[in-house]
Amino acid sequence: MTTPRQHLADIFVELSGGSPESPLDSPGLLAALAVRSRELLGVRACSVLAGAGDSTDAAEVYASEEPARELVLDAHLRQQGPGPQCWDTGRPLPRTDLTGLMARQRWPYYAPRALALGHTHVAARPLRGRDRTVGALVLFGSDQEPVTDEGLRLGQSLADIVAIAVLRERELHRSHTRTDQLEHALTSRLAIEQAKGILAARKSLSMDESFAILRGHARSHQRKLAEVAREVVEGRLAL
Amino acid sequence: MTRGDGYAEQAASAYERAAAARERAANAEEAALRHDAWALEPGQALHTEMAAALRKSAGCHRSSAELQEAFARRMTRWAQGHGAVRPRFMTGVAEACGTRSAALTLVDSGNSQLAVAASNEPARAAQELEFILGEGPTRDAVTHRGPVLASGSVIEERWPCYGPALIALGIREVAAVPLDTSLRRLGALAVFDPRPGLIGTRAFAEVVEALTRLVLLDPDADPDLYGGTDHRDVVQQAAGMVSVHVDCRVDDALALIKARAFTLAMPLESLARSIVSGDLKLTPEGPS
């Protein structure tokens, strides 16, 4: 590998999600993985196939160039080819000759299309997350730009870094959503109780009667109870 | 004798959550083994870190399972008619910290208390002091996003209003740690007179993380902690009423109620109840 060490280190940092202050989102990470792998490994083309669910669910595809992206997207839709296979099994797919019998038998639709794009062999490495595979890195080679053993090792390292960063980003996102939901539920409850108190004092009602008025207004105006309550609390709505 | 009202169901649900947590722990351990194997491949040292993170996560799931099981055992006995006080989930959390007093406080983005789950009366009273006075260890732990530990005279020095009042509750040491959900603040766990040397141990970190997961992050999370979380509904109702009586904003009415409770040395809840029942009408000058 002729790549200077510093350049390699920079790419590792980029692929591990950037800095905590300005993290790359998962599409950004996956796209960077495809482009950087092509650049670092010196192969003909790279594609990244990944998704939030299983290998047969919806997926995103990124690639170092458009024809490779279309090829892998089509492979995913047909569930045929090295990308879907590697994602499904979670195991590396060794370098495979696209003109060979195995490729033609196993991938009757895919192999000729890949050959037509000028690729002679292909390999894939899983995106191994914490406890499951989240996608695959597909490496395409030709005689001039072959997929080497060393390239495959480095490719797995890059794939691992990105897989972990993507999962961390998804976890973070989920945690934010749930924290927001919990805070919203708690502040809504607070506003509703306060609004009940306001109506009770203003109209000399019981808390239950006040609640019935709030709920009745929300229903007849097809609005959320908490929204109505907030407006009462802020003095923007007099019931 | 057995008690009704779904107590046996709560125990069953706690056992189910414990089983789910044990399964998550087993999955994490299994995944750690896989990463161990990958770490042996050349250039794959990253997986050593992943394996360590997964083992940490497994420890937290086990801690979560233990808390659920402890609660389930208590609830089962209670449902069968044993014991005088209904078990609280936080009792088990306090016990895991080597004390009887612990409180979980959930806050909004402005660090105002939204809900409190306390193991016993001193822990509840301590959180109420923070709520009334607007200062204290829980607040500081959330603001600074790090643990707060104070004992003896430091308590009074650090929090001039809260400190003496806390000491008056018979508490000599307090520790508070934020519930960390990365960028967002959710709340904090406060423990009073904890087992010496507890803070900073892995076991304590696991309890805190387990609590974060079981009130928020787990798929079966229960922010209400089996009905043990107090939302101060009556206090909020009273604030709404006082805002009408005094003709002020609800926030100001709440501040008025807090101030009155503090000067009368009365629990907020009791004061709020007398306002809601109409027995007490607050005015800016004083109770009438």
Explain this structure to me?
The complex is a heterodimer of chains A (239) and B (288). Helix content of chain A is 58%, strand content 13%. By secondary structure, chain A is α+β, with helices and mostly antiparallel strands. Chain A has two domains: 5-175, Beta-Lactamase (2-Layer Sandwich), CATH 3.30.450.40; 176-233, Arc Repressor Mutant, subunit A. In chain A, helix 7 crosses helix 8 and helix 7 (149-203) packs across helix 9 (225-233). Chain B folds into three domains: 7-79; 100-217, Beta-Lactamase, CATH 3.30.450.340; 233-276. Helices cover 57% and strands 12% of the residues of chain B. Chain B contains eleven helices and five strands; from the N terminus they run H-H-H-E-E-H-H-E-H-H-E-E-H-H-H-H. Chain B has a five-stranded antiparallel beta sheet with strand order 2-1-5-4-3, sandwiched between helices. In chain B, helix 1 (7-39) runs antiparallel to helix 2 (46-79), helix 2 crosses helix 3 (89-96) and helix 9 (233-246) packs across helix 11 (268-276). In chain B, 48% of the residues are buried. The model of chain B has no long low-confidence stretch (mean pLDDT 91). The chains are: A alpha+beta (239), B alpha+beta (288). The A-B interface holds A 128, 130-131, 153-154, 156-157, 160-161, 164, 172, 174-176, 178-180, 182-183, 185-187, 189-190, 193-202, 207, 233, 235 and B 27-28, 30-31, 34, 38, 41-44, 46-47, 50, 53-54, 106, 108-109, 114-115, 181-184, 186, 215-217, 221, 223, 231, 233-234, 236-245, 249-250, 276. Chain A: InterPro entries: ANTAR, GAF, GAF-like_dom_sf, GAF_ANTAR, WH-like_DNA-bd_sf. Chain A: Keywords: Transcription, Transcription regulation.
